[in-house]
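Lecture 7, part 2: worked example. A protein chain together with zinc ion.
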Amino acid sequence: MHLQPLSSGSQGNATLVRAGETHLLVDAGLPLDELLERLESARVSPRRIGHIALTHGHLDHARSAGLLAKKTGARVHCCERLMSNASLRSAPSLARLTVGSPQPLGGPRGEEELNLRAVKIPHDADPTVAFLLEHAGRRAVVLTDMGHADRNVARQLADAHLILIEFNHDLELLERGPYPPKLKRRVAGDQGHLSNVDAARMLGWMAGPNLHTVVLAHLSETNNRPELARTCAETALADLGLRGVRVLIAHQEQVGPNLEV
Ligand SMILES: [Zn+2]
Ligand SMILES: [Zn+2]
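Predicted complex, written out as structure tokens:
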């Protein structure tokens, strides 16, 4: 299985997962033409996208899900309450995600299936989920847009080989920054986004001996700095004695590397 961040941040999120012949896009939050450009950069024909899985209904995650599904014939997997979301209006085929139970995404006959498991997380779009992806004994996590660290969520996403996790803001930069007070309270609140400190705490709870790569995602361009996020992540890993783990940062403007899980 391979995972490739195509875009990450408040302007739009999308992560490509390839497992054998199965191609899955987790979130489709960029405008359609930009999303198609990112797929081209990743050298993937849009026709190959068989599945789109949505974490939640905010535009920076769901924006083009329906349009891309219409163009590619992909099936959109989402929680029931999201099925009436305007972003999905043109989707030809919707599949209901049941939180907690693994959903096999069928590949060609005889090929090992990619399993998608949704885990409910706290955020101000209800429901919001993180994904655990399992294929041929490898595990990857995609976890963004989470309001606070939660041990129970971490337990359900534990022991992956690769973790993509939101490091949204530095609390001090947010506090001193230009956002209006109400927005500051929303971002820092229990149903907002993970601070670097909270994300590092989640990472510490989730990381196990199999972990080889961590991708820091959904960094705020206004309220964070890549080096601050990286320091928090690396400290959490060092505290666990996990020194060989690679730490990468997913970007808003460029396609990331195609990472082997
Ligand atoms: Zn978001
Ligand atoms: Zn959101």
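The pocket of zinc ion (ligand 1) is lined by residues 10, 13, 58, 60-61, 144-145, 218 (CB under 6 Å). Residues 146-249 form one domain. Keep this in mind for problem set question 3.
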